[in-house]
Automatic annotation (TrEMBL):
SUPFAM superfamilies: Periplasmic binding protein-like II. It comes from Paenibacillus typhae. This is Carbohydrate ABC transporter substrate-binding protein, CUT1 family. PANTHER family: ARABINOSE-BINDING PROTEIN-RELATED, POLYGALACTURONAN_RHAMNOGALACTURONAN-BINDING PROTEIN YTCQ. The keyword Transmembrane does not apply. Keywords: Cell membrane, Lipoprotein, Membrane, Palmitate, Signal. InterPro entries: Bact_solute-bd_prot1, SBP. Gene3D superfamilies: Periplasmic binding protein-like II.
Length: 560
């Protein structure tokens, strides 16, 4: 036996033990220096991305349009096996499966049947009303402790950008029954999109008041703004759904101080429904006059957004209220007339003062976990990884979000920072002011590439036009910045989960409201509005108001 190696081996062993002891002692000292909050966050973030070994399965259902050509651009990927499903399995040990995938109406029919029968997948994406129904039926589990224990600090920060509202909406009887896929309320801000080439042809200026807007609508209708010598244009666009995000009329009504689809705080500190307030009548009277004078398409009440879009594309309409993405909707007009130009302006008011811009509560999608599912925390881990991968410090945006195809949609969960688009604009503005674009995030850099394509003026410039109209120096977000600086944003005051009366009566009340408004615009007596408000209260609105105020009083007591 060779005895010479024993002392060396003993020395190595002693050294290794000392080294381990030193590292453990150093780690303990470092932990002692850390605050309790830092230690808690460190432990929390370790749990947030811990991997299941062996992997666990998690089932969903999915809506996917047969007309969607995304997968045509992604060879080797399918809905069931793609970069996101692989990432979740590789990083978290979560194997995604789909019980079924369907398109459009088929999806909603199957989904309705699944909810009614209680045969739901492990995780299900629902709206606020469906969340309440599943909770009442005892089919889903409380996620309060699961979220607290497993949500990463970045996930908490991101989902908290909308304030407490999304979590209030997901909380039923004091329990968090779903994880909100928060939507950005400021993205619902609307703007006044105007054909600026028509303005120039008629020698007119952008409107700053409602009176000027009405005059502009009249000019666009009567003064042949397209110069074709034919009486074939209208001023204001509208669809058969009055609250459409593009070509709807909610923000026209805001110009009269009317907010017909918001719950508002009245001077006495109670919540009231905007749809029955007297300011609505003045707005309806103005719309009725526009319609009667031929400034709106006489058949708008029969046309959905796609049909109105075709009219705009054909160069028949010059004024559209719409959200930031309306530039892509309006771009059809440039396909038929490359000289067509649109620009977004601030909405206007009848008083001449800066109007409040209504922001309905935007979050209406929640992920609920089936009562029997053994790994509810897996859902939170997916949120953590999705946000980290796209917007974290080590984000791989071009692989997992836009390559440039919208590959983000391959993930079954798609949370996003609420102000990411506005922040991208601010980054671009900083670059335009300083000439330094080196610090752009991946998202802002991708947007700049599209704007550059448009500004270079090549054959493919039109692919960048819509982006420039949103993120350019005079784009939509420059107007949103004005809204913010002028304190014009009006947020929804009721953000709780649906009340019992909402579950039973809301569809009836909303349909009655929309039918009455449409009838008045088309020529019914204005006094129909008073009849509607009385009926609204009698058929459930009064009870609804009491329930909403009980929730509001409860929120007020929490903050005291």
């Amino acid at each position: 036996m060779n005895m010479r190696g024993k002392p060396i081996k003993m020395l190595i062993l002693v050294f290794a033990v000392c080294l381990v002891s030193f590292v453990m002692t150093w780690s303990l000292r470092m932990d002692r220096r850390a605050s309790p909050e830092q230690l808690s966050e460190r432990i929390n973030n370790e749990l947030a991305f811990s991997k299941y070994t062996p992997p666990v399965e998690m089932s969903f259902v999915k809506e996917f349009s047969e007309d969607d050509d995304l997968l045509d651009h992604l060879p080797g990927e399918t809905l069931e096996d793609n970069r996101w499903t692989r990432l979740y399995e590789q990083e978290l040990g979560i194997k995604i499966t789909y019980e079924w995938i369907a398109d459009g109406e088929v999806y909603f029919k199957k989904f309705g049947m699944a909810l009614a029968s209680g045969r739901i997948p492990d995780v299900v994406k629902v709206n606020a009303q469906q969340l309440r129904q599943l909770s009442n039926a005892g089919l889903i589990q409380d996620l309060s402790a699961v979220y607290e224990k497993n949500a990463s600090s970045f996930t908490r920060e991101t989902l908290g950008e909308e304030g407490s509202g999304p979590f209030e909406a997901a909380t039923i009887d004091g329990k968090l029954m779903g994880i909100p896929q928060t939507a950005s309320s400021i993205e619902a801000a609307q703007y006044l999109w105007i054909r600026t080439d028509w303005l120039e042809r008629l020698g007119l200026e952008p409107p700053k008041t409602m009176e000027e807007l009405l005059q502009l609508s009249k000019a666009f209708t009567e003064k042949d703004p397209d110069g074709n010598g034919v009486d074939d244009t209208f001023g204001l666009a509208a669809t058969n759904y009055l609250w459409d995000p593009v070509a709807g009329l909610a923000d026209f009504m805001a110009g009269y101080g009317a907010y017909p689809n918001l719950w508002l705080k009245d001077p006495d500190g109670r919540l009231v429904y905007g749809g029955i307030q007297p300011q609505v009548k003045a707005a309806l009277a103005a719309l009725q006059k526009l319609y009667a004078s031929g400034q709106m398409d006489p058949e708008f009440s029969l046309k959905d957004g796609s049909k109105v879009k075709k009219m705009v594309g054909a160069g028949k309409i010059g004024i559209v209220y719409g959200e930031q993405w309306a530039s892509f909707w309006l771009q059809l007009s440039r396909e038929q007339n490359p000289e067509a130009e649109w620009r977004a302006y601030p909405i206007v008011s009848a008083t001449g003062s800066k109007p409040k811009v209504p922001l309905p509560f935007a979050t209406n999608q929640f992920f609920a976990v089936k009562k029997e599912y053994e790994y509810p925390e897996a859902l939170i881990k997916m949120f953590n990884l999705y946000l980290k991968t796209n917007w974290g410090k080590t984000a791989d945006y071009k692989t997992y979000y836009s390559n440039p195809y919208p590959v983000w949609g391959l993930s079954p969960v798609t949370p996003a920072p609420g102000r990411k688009n506005l922040n991208a604009y601010y980054q671009l503005e900083h670059g335009r002011r300083t000439g330094d674009f080196s610090v752009l995030s991946d998202e802002a850099a991708s947007i700049k590439q599209m704007i550059d394509i448009y500004q270079r003026g090549g054959e493919d410039k039109e692919s960048g036009w819509g982006w420039e109209r949103i993120y350019g120096p005079e784009g939509v977000f420059s107007v949103l910045d004005q809204y913010i600086r002028s304190d014009q944003l009006l947020y929804e005051s009721f953000v709780g989960s649906p009340t019992e009366t909402m579950l039973e009566k809301n569809s009836l009340l909303i349909n009655m409201q929309l039918d009455t408004y449409m009838d008045i615009i088309l020529g019914s007596p204005l006094d129909e509005f008073e009849r509607f408000t009385e009926e609204w209260g009698r058929l459930g609105g009064n009870a609804l108001t009491e329930e909403v105020n009980r929730w509001y009083e409860g929120q007020s007591s929490k903050s005291e």
